[in-house]
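Let's do one together. I've listed all components of the complex below, 644 residues spread over two lines.
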Amino acid sequence: MNGSDAAILPGRPGLLRRLADTLWRHPHLLLLLMLAPPVLWLGVIYLGSLFALLVQSFFSIDEFSGLINYEFTLKTYRELLIPANLDIIVRTVSMAAAVTLAAVVVAFPIAFYAARYARGKWKAAFYLGIMLPLWSSYLVKIYAWKLVLAREGILNWLFAKLHLTWLLEAYLSLPLIGGNSLSVSYTGTFLVFLYVWLPFMILPLQAALERVPGNLLEASADLGGSPRQTFRHVILPLALPGIIAGSIFTFSLTLGDYIIPQIIGSSRLFIGQAVYSHQGTAGNIPLAAAFAVVPIVIMGCYLWLAKRAGAFDAL
Amino acid sequence: MSTALQFAGVSRHYGAVKALDQVDLEVKEGEFFAMLGPSGSGKTTCLRLVAGFEQPTAGHIEIFGETAEGVPPFRRNVNTVFQDYALFPHLNVLDNVAYGLMIRGVEKSERYRSAEQALELVALSGLGKRRAGELSGGQRQRVALARALVNKPRVLLLDEPLGALDLKLREQMQEELKNLHRQLGITFIFVTHDQNEALSMADRVALFKDGRVVQVGTPQEIYRQPNSRFVADFVGSSNVLPPDFVAAVGGASRWASLRPESIYLTREGGHAASVVAASFLGGSTRLAVDVSGLRINLMLPSAAEIPAVGESVRIDWKPADMHLMESGA
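Okay, and this is what the predicted structure of the assembly comes out as:
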């Protein structure tokens, strides 16, 4: 093959060969070399700065001078829990929960079809269809939705053509979820959140469903399980890690977003907007940092509960 | 004995591929029935039709006298032991076994008691709390068996259940399956590509080839009286003798099969042959000899004197051992 009878082949001469040999003999060194840049990036730059921000939440601001008082205190957290701020938190968490639940319901059939039935061309079409919206600008999509949902928008026009304007009016007159028009209601915010984050639910869910062997579904049917029972006792538990993974995306993305509620919805604040305004014009970095801690704590609790409920048992 | 399973002209086509073509079969209640054939011969398709995972393209299937077409798997009182076991990874062994009872709404303590009994039946008691992933292949096999048997099915379908086990374990499981069958008295339908397995375990064997059933009979019939060259060759690699050779040694001008172990070496008479190859198989030695251009295999006990390759020998057999076949296919 190499025209040589030698049992041990000579390597290329030079420094490179010696380096390659050394790395081969010390695989840990190689691993260290490969991991150092990402660990530095993630550990120092990313987590480090996040930690620095969180530390800010334990400082407080002097109301008169507007300067930050670098003394350890829980004063900022007391401020976080005043009713006005608590409203923001409850509003954001409820929205995130609603968006996540709706995303699971909408994503499941799509992901199930893609994982179990789509083959070849159709699978490619599926990925393209899911990913395509992610490639276009986030702002363009949101403004497009504003036009769709506005009082002069296509949705109103469609309802009018179908002589269903009364239905839309009745819906908009509902408390909380209604409003002057869809584009200035919580419903509008919800729809846009759902639209924008849906791919982040579909993809992990599809990956989880793909890993469920088809013969488990046959085994369940063989043991007497109707399609509904099979869904409840086999598919759902095995897809749960995917649902959790997807919900981490949809939930935390909704918790942190400040652009969608600013453009579409009532003018009431969400956590992201609160962080934005406190660290910007108001200059209240400690309170902004305290607001930023909220999603982290909520996600932590959520994962802990999910683990306790056995959501990761199938992993 | 009543009929457990009846196939009448059953076909299953996938486009142009005829996975199963015009099959007629009858399995009696309480029988240990083996479906034997090379891969792609339609035996697994046949099993899947009984389980209800597939629907026939044509023909009629009856299970205990009731029409089975269009009936979904969950409404059939048959249970399957899957080739790769298909145990639920998110459940422990006990919950796996109790799954069918849970689906039927059997109360918790009751179903765990039955599941424990089923695990006892397959000699796995005490492992109920383990995950399926923590078990060895042989243990998973037993769990799959217990999971099917706990439902007290009228027919148990086994899809190459021993294929993934090593030889020793396989022989042990064969023994245990036979015992279970005797003990429970229900109908077993067993799919395999291993002719030894089929012959040693089954009451009757159906031999599949290219989506058709070639021969059905007891292991002895299949082995001693193969009806075609394919059967003779597939079951125990018989010597297939062409018509002119059979005529020359004093038979009718038909294809015949001659079992390797029916041939013996002799000093005089018989037929002159030269040894082409010898392979030591442990208890016996397989000798390949050339008889006027025809290659013939014979089995000799290893204790006997084995001639060397190239040596001239004489071989013979009793005329009754040469079985004339109906077809040359």
